[in-house]
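Narrative summary of target 7.
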Amino acid sequence: MINGSIVALITPMNSDGTIDYASLERLVDFHINQGTDAIVAVGTTGESATLPMKEHIAVVNQTVKFAAGRVPIIGGNGANATAEAIELTKGMQNSGISAMLGVTPYYNKPTPKGLIAHYKAIAASTDIPQILYNVPGRTAVDMKPETVAELCTVSNIIGVKEATGDVSRVALLRQLCGDDFILYSGDDATAREFLLAGGNGVISVANNIVPHAFKAMCDAALAGNTQLAAEIDEPLRSLYSSLFCEANPIPVKWAVHRMGLITHGHIRLPLTELSEQFHGLLLESMKKAQIKVQ
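Modeled conformation, tokenized:
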């Protein structure tokens, strides 16, 4: 079981927009040294929507190489076309990857029947464990717990990343899917409550810049230490909000660059770098979280 504090890693890029693999290697080492339990490569925060398939697969596979077995790597394999998701899956399945994370097909707005057929087809194409990913705020489709319950019977569908912020779903998903099905939060603002309610881990945006503190919060919540988890979480709460002052990953990539963790802060169109009007807001939140900036 992959649980605990998991980073939804940014994808560093050079000023010309190419992948900055030297910075990527530094980021992987940084998170391992900070205690992060696992890394998601090329998910939403990793700009999966703007990486062509060949490049997407290359970044995931290189992340696995950089980690060298020290932490599990989860590769994003979501797409709005099932055939494309299967091609991504096959392209990274022999890299030594631990699991894959597949977002619900976006824009198409599939029915529950379509979601079930989509994920079953992907799972049938590989032996690698698959994690479902529900984020209706981005995809325009909400994968309900009842649909997840239909899919959790597939042997290599092992969990779901639930990014609705609805903590009440934890109890229902646990009831429908059983104790062995892994429940991940995909919403930093409600992550502590999600874990205390019975979740197994958090796939986090904020973890990019506060990995040590976020790991400590997750460990405390998973241990049932409500007070300690709250004490660690409180200074981070303004950060959770400010990291979404513009579309993710615009703010977090800017913040990682300001910390000196990557050489350039380039982000691919149609996203653009953080608007100047939000610089002060994010810097103040980083200060509250005791993050040093350059």
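The chain has one domain: 4-235.
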